[in-house]
Amino acid sequence: MPKRINLCKPNQSAHRRSRARHPQLFPENAHAALVFTADGQIIWCSQDRRGIQRKGISPETVGSVFANAPVWSGFLPTDAWSWGQSDGAEWVALVVPAHVQTLLLTDEVKVEHVTVPLPPLVLAGRRLDYYIWAAGAEKWNREPGAPAYHAPFPNVDSEGRICFGSNILPPASTQTIHAAWDIFLNSPFNDHTIANKSKQFPDDVRRIWRELSERNAESYPYEDLQALGGSIGWALGRHLVRS
Length: 243
Prior knowledge:
By secondary structure, the protein is α+β, with helices and mostly antiparallel strands. It has 2 domains: about 10-65, no CATH class; about 80-240, no CATH class. It is about 20% helix and about 30% strand. It has helices spanning about 10-20, 60-65, 175-185, 205-215, 230-240; strands spanning about 30-35, 40-50, 50-55, 80-85, 90-95, 100-105, 110-120, 120-125, 130-135, 145-150, 225-230. The strands form 3 sheets. A 6-stranded antiparallel sheet has the order 4-5-8-9-10-11, sandwiched between helices.
């Protein structure tokens, strides 16, 4: 029967032979570690002048220790609406007030500039997934229970998830979400996922962009927005606050 090797104090010769094949499990300067075994045990291993000590601990004990660790959001942007962490990932949501914006349309041959008014928007990100939804009133005051609407943009799917194409995105955080917003606004919009974003033009939301641009509209026609089917708070919770 092969000789068993202690997880917390490996056989030195075996360790030297395998080092070239496998990366070292613990850093050279580590003096303590949690070991998770295949059968679900959690073992606390520490080393000092007396040698190596090992102690089994419960998941509740581990949870209570890390529950007291400080968590800080950093300095939040002034337009930040919500921030949190779930499943090991940071998420953040911004409120973008109603404003007039010049956007780019492309048909893969030419690029067209249109200047359109936009409704208030919520831009949210988690890891490399970014979402955008619209509020249905210019005076929306960040109420999470307000109805959510499909953001009137191409390249956004039915859930609100943004397709950035080949653009390289930063992982979502309070420090990077404005960069993701700039990438979204300044990239040309094409003919992908253009349906069901406008009541007047259900087949192609770009048509209302062109109409608004041609008449120099200053406010978005809110009655034209298509309802998402839930509140803005519900949309955030569904896609960001998850375990």
